[in-house]
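Hi F.,

I've been meaning to write this up properly since the lab meeting, where we talked about keeping a consistent format for the predictions we share between groups. The idea is simple: the sequence comes first, exactly as it goes in, then the structure tokens exactly as they come out, then a line or two of notes. No screenshots and no reformatting. I'm using this chain as the first example so we have something concrete to point to.
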Amino acid sequence: MSNPELGSRLRGLSHLALNSSDMQATADFYERLGIPLIAATPIAFGGQHFFFDIGNGDTIAYFYWPDGAGEGIEGRPGIAGQEQRDGAMHHVAMKIDPEDVEAWAEHLKSLGLGFLSIVHDLDFEKDVMNDLSVMGKPDKWAVSLYFVGPDKEQLEVCAWLPALKDLESNLAGLGSADERRRAARDRVTSMADQIAKAQELEKTAGK
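Output, unedited:
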């Protein structure tokens, strides 16, 4: 059942995620500005995900992948059919309360919008896709519902979970300056494919 009221309960911007060619340079830049790096986590294919605190509970986030990471592997960065340029937006995330996650999942389904859910673990290899039942476990730091807009822009509703504070333990894992992505690469991801698969699974389950 559609629930348009959920839109009025958004909590603002969770994070705007950009692409970085050099994670060390990005971190140094924000340090010089006095904007603190508050969380970091490795991601698949040798990549990293970093969050900088811009106040009011909002963050600017960056994705970084070393050259060659994920080539030919499902799940590599970007959106199918789009170039992912360094410095460009990767996705925009809107903040929701944890208690609204399942309602948002039902809302997106009712609107016919395919989405991918990920419950993020402190150990990224234990991230859980398409199973929201695990979001109450102690090592989970966020839950995300990823979907796409009319121009195939990647959108997200995101709820922070208690283990977010423990991501500070990953701050030492900065990418070195000689591990950088080249600008204007045209890498694509299977994010759109994963969303489509999730939608197909929903259709199959409903038969």
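Notes:
The first strand starts at residue 13 and ends at 20.
The chain has a mean pLDDT of 76.

If this format works for you, I'll send the rest the same way.

G.
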